[in-house]
User: Which sequence fits this backbone?
């Protein structure tokens, strides 16, 4: 099953602690007068506190959070601490990702004991009297401050829970790598995750592998006796249902395109690749994908079968399933981070500065001379990103934008690619990110689109040009992370920085 | 603090409490009590308790009534703020929350019903609280 980021919910357990006085008396623990000193008032008072807490949760929880049935606990002024209460909590905690605790005067020790007993992340309600500082400091001193959060006010709660949920998405990421030679690094992307085990330990991501030859064998109907790479085995070969789906998708893509410069048969070949990859992802329970395009290209099989993986990546990305070019698992995870915090469908590509020196731009790949000439009017602090995997939902995941269809191979014109015109997005803010190859850092950049290039061009040619705050600073930080970056529309730099913090990753803000 | 204003305010409060208790007693002793008439008694009870009977606000939202009551009390005698403003204490209670909690405690005592605290605090309007009291009265609790 492909478990998309949008399917992943952060399960939050509200834990309500309260204290009840059993007798009428006054003294340093009685902070009320009149009827409020009478037995019975605290029961109502506690419910009032808890109602306010739960109402705030309903108001401030971001999307992607599931609030579980609250559990109540506490004590009387006998200073009791019942194991039966903890047994009830244990059952509730087993289904939760995060505990959101309401504490108060007289029960803070119970909140502390909760975190000592149950090692799930705990957030302390900001309006729990003086509890946030008391509970946090006490637990920190006991060496248990790592997964403890105490937002200063309710307005800070949405960002925290966005980050915690996005972290769950990252930890739930299973990347399927269709390997040719190396199972980690391709010739095209030496800056990807070379040590996958390290990434698993640091970020919780899991890596699954499949032979790209087996995948390519399965892009056609089953052979009697099995495929050459898997003789005698039943495999995920193309079925009649797949063919029908290919035809349907081809009709849909051709019917909606502003222009189509690719033959239907070559479009169908690319769709065969897409469906085969998706079946493998479903089989392997993976929710991200990458294939080594240049490494696999040299087998000549793509030339023989007349397809590329570009359309696969585009169609998966537009569904919110990260799919990266050039065996760059790092890009896939970076796209997943953007999906997790924004809900948007990302783009990815070679990312480079456009230095303006001596009255002109450096000669650089991926940008036409015509486009460079147009940028001379305002040439400072420019960056650009180009690749071949835009899609139909670039601005919003639920809305299709105008697109074109072109081909990758210049001469034979196979390899269907989607085209998107970033020229229409001038002035729009974009967020750019990429993890470092060791998973210890994350570039988080913000830019403003100044134009696009390549809408009518074949090959690896869809470009977005954006202006950053400080090109030199952006570049120095990009050197820490690598080439391919992921991009979405909108400013999600705060959310990414919050995600980096809960992941224990250094945020390189640019 | 003006002692005469404070004493006058306290006298006004005692009057309001007695008038409220009268409404609850009338409800308990009404042989033809219906849910609708109970709502009338309860609303008047709350207005008397909250010292709003002289100029009742056009709302049945309990939170709004509590806030209005606090505002009028403090304007009657600013020194009363020290007593009414429970948000100055060490607990998380806002003054409005405390006032509503006290109301629920008093309603149970004066109407002689027992309300489930978790449910009672969720009553946001007079009709919702009426429903809970009516349910209790019919069960004979």
Assistant:
């Amino acid at each position: 099953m492909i478990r998309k980021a949008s399917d992943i919910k952060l399960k939050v357990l509200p834990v309500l602690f309260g204290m009840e006085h059993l007798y009428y008396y006054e003294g340093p623990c009685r902070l009320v007068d009149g009827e409020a000193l009478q037995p019975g008032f605290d029961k109502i008072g506690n419910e009032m506190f808890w109602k306010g807490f739960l109402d705030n949760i309903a108001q401030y929880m971001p999307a992607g959070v599931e609030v579980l049935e609250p559990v109540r606990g506490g004590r009387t002024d006998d200073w009791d601490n019942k194991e039966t209460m903890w047994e009830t909590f244990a059952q509730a905690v087993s289904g939760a990702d995060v505990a959101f605790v309401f504490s108060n005067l007289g029960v803070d020790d119970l909140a502390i004991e909760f975190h000592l007993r149950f090692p799930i992340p705990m957030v302390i309600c900001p309006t729990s009297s003086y509890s946030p500082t008391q509970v946090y400091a006490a637990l920190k001193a006991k060496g248990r401050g790592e997964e403890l959060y105490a937002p200063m006010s309710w307005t800070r709660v949405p960002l925290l829970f966005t980050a915690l949920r996005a972290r769950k998405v990252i930890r739930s990421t299973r990347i399927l790598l269709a390997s040719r030679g190396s199972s980690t690094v391709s010739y095209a992307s030496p800056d990807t995750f070379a040590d996958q085990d390290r990434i698993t330990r640091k970020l919780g991501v899991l890596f699954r592998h499949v032979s790209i030859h087996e995948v390519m064998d399965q892009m056609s109907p089953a052979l009697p006796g099995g495929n050459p790479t898997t003789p005698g085995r039943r495999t995920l070969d193309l079925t009649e249902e797949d063919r029908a789906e290919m035809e349907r998708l081809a009709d849909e893509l051709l019917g909606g395109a502003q222009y189509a410069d690719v033959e239907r048969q070559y479009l169908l070949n690319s769709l065969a690749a897409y469906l085969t990859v998706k079946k493998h992802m479903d089989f392997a329970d993976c929710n991200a994908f990458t294939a080594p395009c240049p490494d696999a290209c040299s087998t000549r099989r793509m030339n023989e079968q007349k397809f590329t993986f570009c359309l696969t990546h585009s169609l998966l990305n537009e569904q919110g399933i990260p799919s990266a070019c050039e065996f760059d698992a790092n890009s896939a995870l970076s796209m997943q981070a953007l999906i997790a915090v924004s809900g948007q469908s990302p783009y990815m590509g070679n990312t480079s500065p456009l230095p303006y020196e001596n009255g002109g731009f450096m000669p650089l790949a991926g940008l036409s001379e015509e486009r460079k000439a147009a940028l001379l009017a305002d040439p400072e602090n420019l960056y650009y990103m180009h690749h071949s995997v835009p899609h139909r939902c670039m601005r919003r995941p639920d809305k299709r934008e105008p697109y074109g269809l072109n081909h990758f191979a210049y001469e034979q014109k196979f390899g269907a690619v989607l085209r998107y015109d970033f020229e229409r997005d001038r002035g729009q803010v974009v967020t750019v990110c990429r993890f470092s190859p060791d998973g210890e850092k994350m570039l988080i950049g913000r830019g403003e689109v100044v134009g696009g290039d390549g809408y009518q061009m074949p090959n690896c040619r869809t470009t977005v040009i954006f202006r950053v705050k400080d090109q030199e600073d952006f570049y120095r930080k990009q050197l820490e992370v690598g080439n391919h970056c992921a991009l979405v529309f909108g400013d999600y730099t705060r959310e990414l920085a919050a995600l980096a913090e809960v992941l224990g990753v250094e945020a390189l803000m640019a | 603090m003006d002692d005469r204003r404070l004493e006058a305010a306290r006298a006004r409060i005692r009057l309001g409490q007695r008038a409220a208790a009268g409404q609850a007693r009338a409800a308990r002793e009404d042989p033809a009590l219906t849910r609708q008439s109970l709502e009338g008694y309860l609303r008047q009870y709350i207005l008397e308790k909250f010292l709003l009977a002289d100029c009742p606000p056009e709302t049945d939202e309990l939170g709004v009534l509590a806030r209005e009551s606090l505002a009028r009390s403090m304007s009657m005698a600013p020194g009363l703020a020290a007593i009414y403003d429970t948000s100055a204490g060490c607990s998380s209670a806002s003054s409005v929350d405390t006032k509503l909690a006290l109301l629920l405690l008093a309603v149970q005592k004066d109407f002689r019903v027992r309300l489930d605290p978790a449910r009672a605090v969720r009553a946001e309007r007079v009709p919702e609280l009426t429903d809970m009291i009516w349910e209790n009265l019919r069960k004979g609790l």
Q: What stands out?
A: The CA atoms of residues 16 and 37 of chain B lie 20 Å apart. Chain B has one domain: 3-139. The radius of gyration of chain B is 15 Å. The helical segments of chain B are 3-29, 35-49, 62-76, 81-84, 95-111, 117-120, 126-139.
